[in-house]
Amino acid sequence: MGDEKVVLLDFWPSPLGMRVRIALAEKGIKYEYKEEYLRNKSDLLLKTNPVHKNIPVLIHNECPKLIAWAKRCMEKGSVSKSLPDQDKIYGFVLHLKKVFGIE
Questions:
Q1: Keywords assigned by UniProt (predicted)?
Q2: Number of structural domains, the chain?
Q3: What is the CATH number of the domain that holds 40?
Q4: Which end of the chain, C or N, has fewer beta carbons within 10 A?
Q5: Residue 47 pLDDT > 70, yes or no?
Q6: What is the pTM of this model?
């Protein structure tokens, strides 16, 4: 990759982050790992993922790539039809936040 810089913003127990770390390892891509604390999100996380404000975020040469890839995937009917309704997921997460007292 030469002088290209890859940074992964992640939280160690995240299943999605684990998948990204496995993919990077399989591809032999070296990256800088930055631990995110979900109750105290960094400015970098909020800047690179301003919509969902969540991990994982893969940054390549200071540009977030995972978000762009996810948007491209959602444009494919086969992908978007395979995933649960976003409103249903959002409602479930709100329910979990209430149950566990997370703000």
A1: Cytoplasm, Detoxification, Transferase
A2: 1
A3: 3.40.30.10
A4: C
A5: yes
A6: 0.60
